[in-house]
Amino acid sequence: MRRKLMKKQSKHFIDVEPEALFGEKWGEALAFNTKLLHLDLSFNRIDFYNTRALATALPENTTLFGLHYTGNMGRIDSLGYLHTIEKSFF
Amino acid sequence: MGPNRARALAQALKVTDAHKVNLTYNRLDPGTGKMLMESINPQITDLNLEKNSLGINNVFVDALVKHLDRHDNCLQSLNLSQNRVTDKHVESIVNILTETKNDCLKKLKLAKNRLTCDAAFALRDLYKLYNGAVLENLDLSNNKIYLPGALAIAEIVKKDPITLRVIDLSWNLVSKAPPKNAKEEE
Q1: Per-domain boundaries in chain A
Q2: What is the pTM (predicted TM-score) of this model?
């Protein structure tokens, strides 16, 4: 019974999406900005949800030339799009 | 570099017409830094003071602020990385940039210091209070900037018109909330 309850609780915990304030606010800012050329966010332990929020807004920006994202839960593909990854090397 | 050599260099800096000064990794203390800063030619555009100990107290930053206050100063690039610079020092620098409506400084490197969100708030205020800031390159890597500080920088990025081209926020914890005892940890 206890095991079942724990399983239910952990499942519930996974379902609840934590606040991705960083990704949302920076996504908004980058979608608006047309001047920034280079942004280094590497090794900041940015989690899956924040990366997803950032990745959603990032295609709006067509002027950012270089985004460094190593050491977070995301990777940049050869076309410059940001993708979430399950595990990072931090 | 000891005080005697610094004194000799200070004499040379008064008369030189060089535009770039690189004093990286010279074990400069705030007193020596002050002496150099007071004698430095206002025509110098690029000042690299990386890897010294200039931020141990306020002596050097006060001299730097006086230099920035000069009407004939045309410093375009300032590197104070790895100097134990604190939030208060950044606030002093930002205040003088705002007060004098500085339109020269384009590159500010503050990597590997002890900066927290307060430094980011000060930089946001620079853009709030003074629209003519021309900063293009801002390096805040390897500091202790947490989520509130990162959101303050995002506000700058969202501002229009903005001159910033390069922002380095690597090796911080920009998506994490600051620990409750952050001040004690510092």
Answers
A1: 20-84
A2: 0.89
